[in-house]
Write a structure and sequence with these properties.
binds adenosine-5'-diphosphate; Rossmann fold; OB fold (Dihydrolipoamide Acetyltransferase, E2P); 6-stranded parallel beta sheet; 21 strands; 18% strand; 723 residues; binds magnesium ion; 26 helices; single chain; alpha/beta; 4 domains
């Protein structure tokens, strides 16, 4: 007999086990049983043949209509042509030199046929299909009858492992399986009226009724949500149990002096989040908080206050940004906001002041040495940087807080790399670029406490967005350029965003993949800028911005733009996140259909940051009614980033929804869909929480504890693989 961890070789024999290993990556009985059917075919309900498309890989249920073997002309051998039908349409199957099959492919027999639909003389056919006939009573062989029931499971199949072979193996495995222990606590099972684990698996693989499959699926989907939430809750508890240096807010320090110089009133939301963070920092355990906020909601200032609170206790804070442009901007903003307070160690610096240091990959060797020295000596209270902060040689005197800006660019791995730089685990504040729906946040960042900033600062002017269909309304594009001239005439500035750097570059190659489009005539920064300069924007001060510029060039340009010495910045998406120039009021996005919904929302967040209204024009060649146009209309119709991120995520595959983080657990999510299954995830979270609240060590639930350990181990293994 077998258990879930039994190797398949011991149940199915060498060859089959090998085939399953290469075919579907299954090593153990459990791996195999977790290979769930995609759908079911009903015995007797034949597949609609007219709906098959050429080139599709199909598994169909059909009936043999005719079978005829004839010799090949002028050659040795024979050809067997079998025609199958669904009662209306017909499809021909051809076999070479397999005349013997004529005997079993008798007229009237039903079977499953699998292969790639080809065209021959304009007719669809399956060449050399795999097939499995359904026992029709006349058959008495069948040591196992994988088609015992009315419902025939259809598995995601590969050519080596057709669906029914998987079904056969699963039938064997289920037959050999001993009683299995169920990790789901009994009271939860009862409360939700779930079948046992064994019954759920049987129901899914061999349903007598479709309701068996549904119940099995419901339970197993719940299991995924429950185990993941349990994992995150346990991790959160473990983090909370760690010791960290408490950093209680101190009166009369840098923070107080800084508050006096703030040129605006903090929003209610900012105050709430600040209170949460100050409370976290005062604990002798590390903070792990996610701050997600609408674009422009003022996350930076919240982070800066937290950093100053830590500096006031004699510690250091590191701010990690995803791009060089953003790291440089943060450095400049923080330096200028701090003014005298950030000139620690210099003549005439304010009492108790600190020093801000920038560390990026492009520093010269001596400059880097100097910066590293400032960090390791503790002279620098605030260290701002890119990935360079993660390098081996980077050391801090007393790292008390890590702030990670625009987290969607960073994985769990980076969080961990930085944490290892402190003697005690530092406090961690993660900020997201894109607001994400609550259940996605719970799934991706479920081990963090979450704060949300929905409100924008008072007096912030709204951003109006319009879609400009360039092919239908070329006049509107002209109008866009004159709008830019008007804004500049009023002393404002503009962004023009294009998807490419040069005509043939692929600065957004990742998006070709996302949208399945490939085109060579996309607007490029290097073509567009001179064209505008010589034409509609003549006389304005234009500058280029893109990822291939040197870091000095990028920095000089951004500083000049920030100071208003450039009217129009023609840029790729390097300015997508974080860039903050309140005097910029208009943005024109070329080939806007090339960008994702959340990306466009981020991009337009660059305008309307001051008190003058923002205008965003999305120029596109996409056809009316196309999905690209619908996406753009969605962006134009709302300014609610949470709503837009939902639109965005709904169009992605599940793996992309969860992103790079949680990679280890992701492979355990087969049935769960974070957007669709919101209620279930909420329920599972509450259930998992009550299990841990009542029995933190899971002493009453040894199977559950064991299952969790396996998950944790898999996650760790995945982490190492990627390292
Ligand atoms: P994001 O949340 O997108 O990172 P930022 O932190 O860059 O937003 O803030 C956007 C702009 O709003 C900045 O210019 C910042 O100085 C300003 N700001 C932040 N908080 C307030 C406030 N309470 N009142 C007015 N302006 C604010
Ligand atoms: Mg920001």
């Amino acid at each position: 007999m077998a258990s879930l961890v039994t190797k398949l070789v011991n149940v199915l024999g060498d060859r089959t086990a090998k085939a399953l290993e290469t075919g579907i990556g299954a090593h153990t009985v459990e791996d195999l049983l977790r290979h769930y059917p995609r759908r079911y075919m009903v015995r007797g309900e034949l597949t609609d043949i007219s709906a098959l498309n050429a080139d599709d890989e199909v598994t169909i249920l059909a009936e043999v209509f005719s079978a005829k073997s004839r010799p090949l002309q002028g050659k040795k051998g024979s050809i067997l042509e079998v025609v199958v039908t669904d009662g209306n349409g017909k499809l021909s199957l051809t076999f070479f030199n397999q005349a013997w099959r004529e005997k079993e492919l008798r007229v009237g027999r039903q079977g499953l046929f699998a292969g790639k639909v080809g065209l021959f003389n304009g007719k669809r056919q399956l060449a050399h299909p795999d097939y499995e006939l359904i026992p029709d009573g006349a058959d008495v062989d069948g040591a196992i009858d994988e088609f015992a029931g009315k419902y025939l499971p259809v598995y995601p199949a590969t050519s080596k492992m057709p669906s029914w072979k998987v079904a056969q193996c699963i039938a064997l495995a289920l037959g050999a399986l001993d009683e299995i222990s169920d990790y789901l606590p009994e009271q939860i099972r009862k409360e939700h009226n779930f079948p046992s684990l064994r019954d759920a698996l049987i129901g899914l693989h061999q349903p007598k009724e479709l309701s068996d499959a549904e119940r099995g699926r419901a339970r197993l989907t719940y299991d995924e949500a429950f185990l993941l939430q349990l994992l995150l809750i346990v991790r959160k508890a473990e983090l909370r149990a760690l010791k960290a240096t408490a950093r209680p807010t101190r009166q009369g320090g840098l923070l107080d002096q800084f508050d006096l110089t703030l040129p605006f009133e903090l929003t209610g939301g900012q105050k709430d989040v600040i209170a949460e963070i100050e409370n976290d920092l005062a604990q002798p355990h590390p903070m792990h908080r996610l701050l997600q906020g609408e674009v422009g909601s003022g996350k930076t200032i919240v982070a800066l206050r937290a950093m100053l609170a830590v500096v006031d206790t004699g510690g250091q804070a590191a701010l990690l940004a995803p791009t060089e442009v953003l790291a440089q901007q943060h450095y400049r903003t923080i330096s200028s906001m701090l003014g005298n307070l950030g000139h620690g160690g210099m003549l005439g610096s304010a009492e108790g002041s600190t020093q801000v240091t920038l560390i990026t990959g492009s520093l010269s060797a001596p400059a880097r040495r100097e910066a590293h020295m400032q960090a390791s000596s503790g002279e620098a209270g605030i260290v701002v940087g890119t990935h360079a902060l993660l390098s081996e040689s980077m050391a801090f005197a007393d790292l008390g807080l890590i702030v990670i800006d625009e987290q969607h660019r960073f994985g769990v791995e980076q969080r961990d790399a930085l944490k290892s730089k402190a003697e005690f685990p530092p406090h961690v504040l993660v900020m997201t670029a894109t607001p994400i729906p609550r259940t996605v946040a719970m799934t991706v960042f479920g081990d963090l406490d979450i704060s949300t900033l929905r409100e924008l600062p008072l007096g912030r002017a709204p951003i109006t967005t319009h879609v400009i269909p360039a092919l239908e309304k070329p006049m509107y594009v002209e109008r866009a350029w004159s709008r830019i001239r008007e804004e500049v005439a009023q002393g404002h500035q503009a962004y023009i965003v294009a998807p490419r750097i040069t005509a043939d570059s692929t600065s957004n190659a990742d998006m070709d993949f996302l949208f399945g489009v490939k085109s060579n005539d996309l607007t490029s920064v290097e073509e567009l800028a001179p064209r505008l300069h010589a034409g509609p924007l003549a006389g304005l001060r234009l500058a280029l911005m893109h990822g291939q510029l040197s870091n000095e060039e990028k920095e000089t340009t951004m500083i000049a733009f920030g100071k208003g010495q450039i009217d129009v910045l023609v840029s790729t998406t390097v300015i997508e996140v974080g860039v903050d120039v309140p005097n910029a009021t208009i943005m024109v996005v070329m080939d806007a259909d090339r960008f994702g919904v959340s990306q466009l929302h981020q991009l337009r967040g660059r305008v309307g940051r001051g008190t003058s209204p923002g205008l965003c024009l999305l120029v596109t060649n996409a056809e009316p009614e196309s999905s690209a146009r619908i996406r753009l209309d969605a962006v134009a119709s709302t300014q609610d980033g949470f709503e837009l991120s939902r639109v965005d995520l709904e169009q992605r595959r599940e793996g992309d929804v969860l992103g790079a983080s949680q990679s280890g657990t992701k492979s355990h999510l087969r049935l769960l869909r974070v957007l669709r299954d919101e209620k279930l995830i909420d329920q599972a979270r509450a259930d998992a929480q009550s299990v841990i609240d009542s029995d933190p060590q899971m002493i009453q639930y040894p199977e559950l504890a064991g299952t969790l350990r396996v998950l944790q181990r898999d996650e760790a293994a995945e982490f190492i693989d990627k390292g």
